[in-house]
Amino acid sequence: MTRPIHVLNGPNLNRLGLREPHIYGHTTLAEIETLCMDAAGDRPLVFRQTNSERQMIDWIHEAIDESCALLINPAAFTFYSMAVMDALKMYPFPMIEYHISNIHKREPMYHTSLVSGVATVVMAGAGARGYGHAVRLLCEMVADPAWPGRSL
Q: What pLDDT is recorded for position 136?
């Protein structure tokens, strides 16, 4: 059986489309899920969102056991959750940290990610469409074990 790509979304992303549209746009999380499913093609994809740090850690553990790649938008967990970072350190497959906005153009509190140091790839600022690009990249990485940077 083909292992799925897991897409995990952190706190407040369930409010996309309504929340600060000048930063995050008008695309809803349901629309982002559709973008991800389309980008995955025939590969199975698990798409989730939580406002709970505990739930996020449980889902990361599940991804360690069941997935082939991980796309994570940790949202606020990015900047303070050592527990999420520690769980992600155990993830043995390609992982992309994704942010809808360019966190480096925002207030200084958003500039330091605890996740970036454990992710295979970091992407930020491409809006909702960036999710689709990230899923396609993960599909390429999974298909090509020699992909440059895969094991960094």
A: 98
Q: Is 99 a catalytic residue?
A: yes
- Is the pTM higher than 0.90? The answer reads yes
Strand partners, 9: 49, 73
Number of domains in the chain: 1
Domain containing 54 equals 5-143
Active-site choice (91, 98, 99, 131)? 99
- Name which of 78, 85, 96 is nearest 152 in CA terms: 96
Residues annotated as binding site for substrate?
Answer: 73, 86, 100-101
pLDDT in tens, 28-41: 999 999 999 999 99
Residue 110 maps to which CATH number? 3.40.50.9100
